[in-house]
Design goal:
CATH class of the largest domain: Alpha Beta
Strand content: 5-15%
Number of domains: 2
Number of helices: 15
CATH architecture of the largest domain: 3-Layer(aba) Sandwich
CATH topology of the largest domain: Aspartate Aminotransferase, domain 2
Helix content: 25-40%
Bound molecules: (4S)-4,5-diaminopentanoic acid
Structural class: alpha/beta
Distance between the termini: 39 Å
Shape: globular
């Protein structure tokens, strides 16, 4: 039987699902292309249903930091699956993963497993509101914290890519409790905390903004948030769904040395299976049901397969030298990209933190949402399409990160740079 092409499969998918998609791949729309259907992946490579192979920098949008189908992760999942896929009862694996998270993130004195980053953030916000008795939340323009109603206000990621940062269906009464401020601007935070004294429950931030491209925190920004929230009695929530176990084993809070009250995790801690977690100060987490009155639930939370994949992934990441290797690969790539840009005479901005990066087609520095959206998305779309034809699979959006994994070899990076060298001359 002939293999169905991505084109045919996508037509079928569109009849079955809105836009024919379920995952962040919906962003393909922004580059004027159609998603390619994936058949399998291994290490740094991903293969489509027509048998074409690409070097993958999407990394399932972050989780696949040890590479696709790592034998240790696959074995752990297979072993767990053979024992049953869900019990709705505690397992040793839940204890083990929670202990690993707590050890890596000392600020997370207690941890609750959930099924996605969205759930983690939604629950952390509820807890912050309950613990402070306040309703308003400060977030930052272009940061993405999942798709719960309260967070879909000037959101990044797919919402930004598709031009719908404020979704219909979010009641205005709820949206008014979410205050959006410019990233990297502690003065704006101070003014708002002062003006709305006693009203702000929490400040939530991606400590490296990684859903509007990649935007590193300016020196002093995270420290400023820590001081200001403490001064005004608001909680500081780090959304480390992307940065957790990515920019350091202990996430951005380890890398930048700032301790939040609550942290949200996802992606990497599930090793490619659906998972999320939130945690923080013991006195706060003790307010969650059934220990306290703040309710949150989930039948599949702590799912044994997700726990097994997460544990295996963190065991690999915990080996000495892992983050040095990732940093080295990231630095090698960005030096090559800088050289390519120079040779091709293309003015663009490269932002990188460790193994995540973004090439913005703009001339001015990208430090916040306003400067990010100056990027030329048409030029990005052309770049993306040509890179894809050259066998390099990037996220189909100017406003997403490129992820390097432990599986990317020097040969992979060199091949990517060679393709990019040709592409930059043509765009
Ligand atoms: N953090 C994901 C990619 N940046 C967003 C999830 C989604 O768009 O579905």
């Amino acid at each position: 039987m002939p293999r169905a092409s991505s084109k045919v499969l996508f037509r079928e998918a569109q009849r079955l699902m809105p836009g024919g998609v379920n995952s962040p791949v919906r962003a393909f729309r922004s580059v004027g292309g159609k998603p390619i259907f994936i058949a399998r992946a291994k290490g740094s490579r991903i293969r489509d249903v027509e048998g074409r192979t690409y070097i993958d920098y999407v990394s399932s949008w972050g989780p696949m930091i040890v590479g696709h189908a790592h034998p240790r992760v696959v074995k752990a999942v297979q072993k767990a699956a053979a024992k049953g896929t869900s019990y709705g009862a505690p397992t040793v694996a839940e204890n083990r993963l929670a202990a690993m998270v707590k050890e890596a993130f000392p600020s997370m004195e207690k941890v609750r497993m959930v099924n996605s980053g969205t759930e983690a953030v939604m629950s952390a916000i509820r807890l912050a509101r309950a613990a402070t008795g306040r309703s308003d939340i400060i977030k930052f323009e272009g940061c993405y914290h999942g798709h719960s109603d309260q967070m879909l206000v000037k959101a990044g990621s797919g919402a930004l890519t598709l031009g719908i940062p404020d979704s219909p269906g979010v009641p205005a009464d709820l949206a008014r409790h979410t205050l959006n401020l410019p990233y990297n601007n502690p003065d704006a935070v101070e003014k708002t905390l002062r003006r709305r004294r006693g009203k702000i429950a929490a400040v939530i931030v991606e400590p490296v903004a990684a859903n509007a491209g990649v935007i590193p925190p300016a020196p002093g920004f995270l420290e400023g948030l820590r001081e200001l929230t403490a001064e005004y009695g608001a909680l500081l929530i780090f959304d480390e769904v992307i940065t957790g176990f990515r920019v350091a084993y202990g996430g951005a809070q380890e890398r930048f040395g700032v301790r939040p009250d609550l942290t949200c995790l996802g992606k990497i801690i599930g090793g490619g299976l659906p998972v999320g977690a939130y945690g923080g100060r013991g006195d706060l987490m003790e307010q969650m049901a059934p220990e306290g009155p703040v309710y949150q639930a989930g039948t599949l939370s702590g799912n044994p397969l997700a726990m097994a994949a997460g544990i295996a992934t963190l065991e690999i990441l915990g080996q000495p030298g892992t983050y040095r290797k990732l940093e080295k690969k990231g630095a090698y790539m960005s030096a090559g990209v800088a050289e390519n840009l120079k040779r091709a005479g293309v003015r663009a901005v490269q932002n990188r933190v460790g193994s995540i990066s973004c090439l913005f087609f703009t001339r001015s520095l990208v430090t916040d949402f306003k400067s990010a959206i100056k990027a030329n998305t048409r030029r990005f779309a052309d770049y993306f399409a040509r890179m894809l034809r050259g066998g390099i699979y990037l996220a189909p959006s100017q406003f997403e990160a490129a992820f390097i994994s432990l599986a990317h070899s020097k040969a992979d990076l060199d091949r990517t740079l060679a393709v990019q060298r040709r592409v930059l001359k043509k765009i």
